[in-house]
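Why does residue order matter? Because the sequence determines the fold. Keep that principle in mind as you read this record.
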Amino acid sequence: MKKNLRKRLLKKRDDIQPGEKKRKEAAIRKRLYASADFKRAKSILFYASFRSEADTTACILHAMKLNKNVLLPRVKRKKRELRIFRINDISGLESGYMGIHEPKINKIYEKDIDDVDIVIVPGAGFDIKGNRLGYGEGYYDKLLSRSKKNTGTIALAFEEQIAEKIPAEPHDIKVDIIITDKRLIKCK
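Structure:
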């Protein structure tokens, strides 16, 4: 069921035309920047967008301009987990797991999930209760489950990625807020 739903939602996302996608991304950014959670956060873990995901590059650059600590994940494939690194600019990123841009390993800049105020979470789809359909590897669920301080989560998504119901399992971690091109959804 999850596999078919993921395929359907990714097709909807992939079908958004380039001009429309740019307009939708601008609306998502505007809502993100205006949100109290973003304004309050000193440290934000972004994902480096790839394929047809809502582009995060402008968000990363904007957060840096505001002197926020910007972090990106790096996949540790053997342990099937994410490591977090603070970045100072995006020029030092390298192609990593599945071709996704990742920070280079530098122990000085490695951080823990509890050093993060907000995690910007990727996904194939979401429902208004905060259930998230990821890409099937569970990286973000594992990362967020390590948080002792209940780190806040925000999903950036196109309205086309909102489903009536996302099937959830006990280990799945819900997102707190979903920001789309049309609305900000408080899930919890």
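The chain has a mean pLDDT of 95.
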